[in-house]
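Workshop exercise sheet. Pairs work together: one partner reads the sequence aloud, the other fills in the structure field after running the prediction. Swap roles for the next sheet.
Pair: D.N. / O.F.
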Amino acid sequence: MSDTQPAPPPPVVTTPQQANDSLMSPQFILAAATVGIVAGTVAAVLWHGDDGNIKLVLGFVFGLGSGVGSFYFGSSQGSQKKDIILAAQLPPPPVPGP
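Structure field:
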């Protein structure tokens, strides 16, 4: 028999990118809420609105959708990916001497 014990499993490390890839990320929640608002507003205005209100609300809703799309697919995600790549390429910090 051997007195050695198996090595413990490595710790699970969640990177910021892994946290943002989940369905509970701020980007996904914001995009899902906006899609619901857009769909509901468009349906309500097209169903009950007059011509002037339809044009006004559609312009607002599609402008909002454009802003959310720009945020979701834009620089914030690219910046986070860049930070992770750069952090992986950095050498370890030097150990101070006595």
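Discussion prompt: The chain has a mean pLDDT of 75. What would you look at next?
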